[in-house]
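User: Run a structure prediction on this.
Assistant: Running it now.
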Amino acid sequence: MFRTVSELVDLATRENKKISDIMIEREMKISGSSREEIISVMARNLEVMEEAILKGEAGVKSTTGLTGGDATLMKAYIAEGRFLSGEVLLEAVTKAIATNEVNAAMGIICATPTAGSAGVVPGVLFAVKERLDLSKEAMIDFLFTAGAFGFVVANQAFISGAAGGCQAEIGSASAMASAAVVEAAGGTPEQAAHAMAMTMKNMLGLVCDPVAGLVEVPCVKRNALGASQAIISADMALAGVKSRIPCDEVIEAMYRVGLQMPSSLRETAEGGLAATPTGRAIQAKIFGLAPENPSEHES
């Protein structure tokens, strides 16, 4: 039915349908399942997302102790009312952190599109829930819309840090969330595509450098910043701001950048933050190894 963002936008515009409906129809055609069955599965995903957010906001700690508790700090900070940015933005940050802290603590999350980037989409969705007065049906539609854009990225580029760096993982998740929130706010399919493009192009080149090879540092905080990027880009698109580079070309650029990225910056924990003295020391402490000399990695 569609392979590119431009085809998706054209289809939605021509048939006067929401992108979420187009994605549901695609799933019906591919799986042979009924509309009700497909929506039921997504509704369960929504429940898992909400449960993870609530658990994370209540406070969790990972086995390593590297992550946990930051979502509760953010909730307390928001409650004080002295924050510098907007409340919706900070709620998205908090809920994104909460989700990924649960992931790091080996809890149940919904990969969107991966476990390492699982906080962005639900973080944004539950942050705008009250602002946009979203019903459960509208929230499910949000997830299908995000899925439609994610489907394009997964098939035209990549969505894993190991394949294309964090730009392909949290970058894709943020772009998906940005497009979905535009549609949820009443924007056009074209505006959703512009939001996605602006989000992704501003995350190009983001490396995947997990300290000690664990999906904790800097992954959790990158989900937080990805969620904020998604909302800012959505606001820009809804205001009429357009990406000068078409969305499909941005996806292609992300793919090429990922191919050019050295393996040390693609989830191997051999470069970036993972290779800093502190990063190496954390790895040595967790795995009981002698700290490596950073100079050994310089040539």
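The longest helix spans residues 35-58.
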